[in-house]
Amino acid sequence: MRNLILLFTRYGHVILFLIFQLIGLSLIINYNQNQKEIWINSVNLFSGNINKNVQKFTNYGSLQEKNDSLASENALLQEKIINFRLFDKSYEFKKFENDTLLHEYKLIPVNVCSKTTHLRNNYITLCSGAKAGLRERMGVITDDAVLGITTLCTDSFCKAMLINNSLTKISGVVKRKNYSGKLVWRSFDPRILTMTSVPRHADIELGDTILTSGYSTMFPYGIPIGIITSYDIIQGQNEYEIEVTMLEDPAKVDMAYAVDYKLSEEKDSVITQVLE
Amino acid sequence: MNQIVKYIISFFLIALFQVLILKRIDINFNRFQYFHLMIYPLFLLILPVRTPKSLMVVIGFFLGLFIDAFYDSPGVHACAATFTAFIRSYVLKIVEPTEGYNTTAVPSIRAFTIGGFFIYASILLLVHLFIYFSLEAFSFIYIGEILLRTIFSFIVSIILLMLVQLIFSRK
User: Of A44, A153, B5, B122, which one has the greatest count of Cβ atoms within 10 A?
Assistant: First the structure.
């Protein structure tokens, strides 16, 4: 105790100085736009680099497994294409395949550098950034599920909010019935989403698949999100509250695709005008 | 008591002089924007030599915060001024005369001679400006810009600072 007091009398000014310097820096970072952006970008770059290197090592372990899943996925795609070619008698598909101008969506493969899944607002960091063509507000999907939306991109890293983020809202439709609704994450289970705004008269069943609606610019139509595991009508309201279980556990994902929609700017401008 | 009132008045005089007059003076030629008049650290310079070091740091922080309120840059001046206040005791040691300071010494041209005060003020003002412009840019990518601003602002500021000190040390 005596030593502690002695310490304060001798170095009190140093301690005070450090405290005030910290207060000052936090003021600078929080309330000055330029400095705030530089800070966020530098921190993102710093943590991104570390995570990238850690990820490099941890990736080796699961290389074989990943290889297998990629191979089977390729086989599946190849199978679909071949069958579709045979099925398509008028050579429409061949025409489409050859004309790249018709392709509105482009997928950019990205590695996941780091992620959190246990917080209320979860984010992932992608190991590619603006250089690879990523932008803010792009959808991130995996082979068969929706993962999140990018929020901040630097030259070589990108931050995306996961679907397990209380700020994320995704519009979805019930497969084959086309009732649309809004998907948010409210539960504590990372795999369970809540779908609202589905009208009461809608005819839904347990086990129905929920797909992305393609209404926004971030996701194309028809990416599976999850299946209905329970539903309920909120008392006094005219809509369902549906519990949707996701097909893929976001905690396991380490490869994803960012969706680049060619007409996103055009569509965005129309959507925002309608809203205004 | 009298002393404290005197310092409180000079705090507001110097700070208001900075934010109401010097902030508006623009001596930049079209693309050459490196001159910024900064003399408010003068208040930190003229506090008595025996001011407790902790009190110095506190005063520096609040002086900077006061300036920040008018410059719309929360924290930038506060950080720089805190730093300047913190290193003042070390700079005082550098310019300390061989016989030491007496207990009531106040840094001024009369007490330090004009050369001594110039060195003392230059070191602190240079450090202050460098810290300030670094925090303003917030990235050492702009190191060239920071140094140019520091040097040119230092030249105009130190002249003004010495003039102010000369005028007020007469009486």
Answer: A153
